[in-house]
Amino acid sequence: MLTVLKEIFTWWNQQTLGTRFTIFFFGKFIGKDYLGNKYYQTKKGKRFVVYNGEVDASKIPNEWYSWMHFTPNKFENKHELNKFEWQKPHKPNLTGSKSAYSPKTNKSATKKKYNTWKN
Description:
Elements: H1 2-9, H2 17-26, E1 27-32, E2 38-42, E3 47-50, H3 62-68, H4 107-110
Antiparallel strand pairs: 1-2, 2-3
């Protein structure tokens, strides 16, 4: 009961009640990524993602981004990609947090990169 109330009144945390009904009655499970997000598609072609944890659009990995945006590519039906050692793990969007980039705290970004002429 608490889960249903949470879905009704706090839509920003997880899927909404309407999304749950749509997926239950019309949705087809397509796959799951390494972050735990689940992807669904209706018979009419609408695509859904149910995020694992907090809703953040930057949590969609590259292999699923093109599928969500109807962009055809060679990975369309293959969502399992090889991860290389040079690939960095996902970082959430830090905007609005204390860890966000700010030129005021980054002295090298505000430092002049040249010397002005002097008279």
